[in-house]
Specification:
This protein is mostly helical. Helix content is about 35%, strand content about 10%. The N and C termini lie far apart (about 45 Å).
């Protein structure tokens, strides 16, 4: 299976039976990152976490909104 990195447009060939290839094939909402881009994003995220200014914003949930 051919997969294109969404950041650098590099095309990689994945084994058809690999879990990543199956995930990309069955759930098109998932995107592929080449190992180079994935490692770069991981390193920069870890650096931001170490600064202490990195925050994850979660939607606050009230009681079950579907029952209102």
């Amino acid at each position: 299976m051919l997969a294109k990195c969404m950041l650098c447009d590099r095309i990689d060939e994945l084994d058809d039976q690999s879990p990543l290839a199956k995930k990309l094939r069955n759930r098109p909402i998932h995107t592929y990152l080449c190992p180079t881009c994935h490692d770069r994003i991981t390193e920069r995220t870890i650096e931001r976490w170490k600064t202490g200014k990195f925050r994850i914003h979660h939607k606050r949930r009230t009681k079950d909104e579907s029952l209102i």
